[in-house]
């Protein structure tokens, strides 16, 4: 049975961490090559599964030491039909790997969040989020899906998660509102809470040219505000910070940040021979500055180039600030 599906604990205001950049961590720290930047194939081998277990276990330890909650995304960002076919997996095998990704996090949760009846401050609440990614690797105006096509495409993976012990759906790195709408519709049909995370370019806008504000407001309008909350990921705070401080009421719908370590654009990052880890201390200070202006932010993690060092700094710098804001 899913532990938190009926009531996501991060909605109650406690500070939660997430993991960092899983793909770049596998490349930089485990020395693993990732075809199409996909980590889910690692679940096919004992060595790959062990690497993922080490990765997620490190974040469980950081959350435990920090006394904070933790949202863990399954290693399935590209484990959907088109990407699976591209990588040579059948739909049945793909389904099993999605479920295997869930089971791995269930096993870790049993070690760290073993008493659901305990008071929040006495346990490390671990929320399991079934991770979805965009159907395509980058925005392609001529072939972008309609919201209904997106609903139909993502339905299979969402229904797989709905039948497992997943607490919520996490849709990361979306670059257009239409796909976000389709995912929200499919999640609602499956009875699953969903967090929608957009990525932006260096100008703070989605690849479509749409503003972050317009994207959030559009999804809320079309879905009757179904998403539990929104996030921004796979961009640096210098890219989106100004957009989040424009004073609009929509900003309060954005609870989470999973920033890149680097200030480089997506195109520049793609051209690098190895991930750019940036400066973990500097990134934590930039998170703290955003939290001072946006006290409702309470889900903090990382994306490309970030690892356990960045998340440990973010926890150390932002946790005291968060508790001070609540007093």
Please explain how this structure is put together.
This protein has a single domain (about 15-325), classed as TIM Barrel, CATH 3.20.20. An eight-stranded parallel barrel has the order 1-2-3-4-5-6-7-8, surrounded by six helices. The longest helix is centred in the first third of the chain and has 22 residues, at about 90-110. The chain has eleven helices and eight strands. The chain has helices spanning about 20-30, 45-65, 80-85, 90-110, 145-160, 175-190, 210-225, 235-240, 265-270, 280-295, 310-325, and strands at about 15-20, 70-75, 125-130, 170-175, 195-200, 230-235, 255-260, 300. Helix 2 (about 45-65) runs parallel beside helix 11 (about 310-325), helix 6 runs parallel beside helix 7 and helix 10 packs parallel to helix 11 (about 310-325). The mean pLDDT is about 95. Helix 8 links the parallel strand 6 (about 230-235) and strand 7 (about 255-260). The protein has about 325 residues and is of the alpha/beta class.
């Amino acid at each position: 049975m899913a532990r938190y599906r009926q009531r996501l604990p991060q909605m109650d205001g406690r500070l939660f961490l997430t993991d960092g950049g899983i793909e770049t961590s596998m490349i930089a720290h485990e020395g693993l090559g990732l075809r199409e930047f996909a980590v889910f194939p690692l679940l096919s081998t004992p060595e790959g599964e062990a690497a993922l277990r080490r990765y997620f276990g490190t974040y469980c330890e950081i959350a435990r030491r920090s006394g904070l909650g933790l949202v863990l995304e399954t290693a399935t960002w590209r484990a959907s039909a088109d990407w699976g076919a591209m990588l040579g997996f059948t739909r049945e095998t793909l389904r099993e790997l999605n479920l295997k990704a869930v089971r791995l996090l269930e096993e870790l949760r049993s070690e760290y969040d073993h008493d659901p009846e305990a008071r929040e401050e006495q346990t490390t609440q671990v929320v399991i989020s079934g991770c979805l990614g965009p159907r395509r690797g980058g925005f392609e105006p001529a072939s972008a899906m309609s919201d209904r096509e997106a609903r139909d495409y993502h339905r299979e993976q969402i229904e797989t998660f709905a039948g497992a012990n997943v607490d919520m759906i996490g849709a990361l790195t979306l670059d257009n509102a239409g796909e976000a709408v389709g995912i929200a519709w499919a999640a609602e049909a499956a009875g699953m809470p969903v967090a929608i995370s957009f990525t932006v370019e260096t100008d703070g806008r989605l690849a479509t040219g749409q503003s972050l504000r317009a994207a959030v407001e559009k999804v809320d309008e079309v879905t009757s505000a179904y998403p539990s909350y929104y996030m921004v990921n796979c961009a640096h705070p210098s890219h989106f910070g100004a957009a989040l401080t424009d004073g609009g009421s929509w900003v309060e719908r954005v609870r989470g940040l999973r920033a890149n370590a680097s200030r480089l654009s997506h195109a520049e990052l793609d051209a690098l021979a190895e991930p750019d880890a940036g400066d973990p201390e500097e990134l934590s200070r930039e998170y703290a500055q955003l939290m001072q202006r946006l006290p409702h932010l309470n889900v903090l993690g990382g994306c490309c180039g970030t690892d356990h060092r960045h998340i440990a700094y973010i926890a150390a710098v932002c946790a005291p600030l968060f508790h001070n804001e609540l007093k």
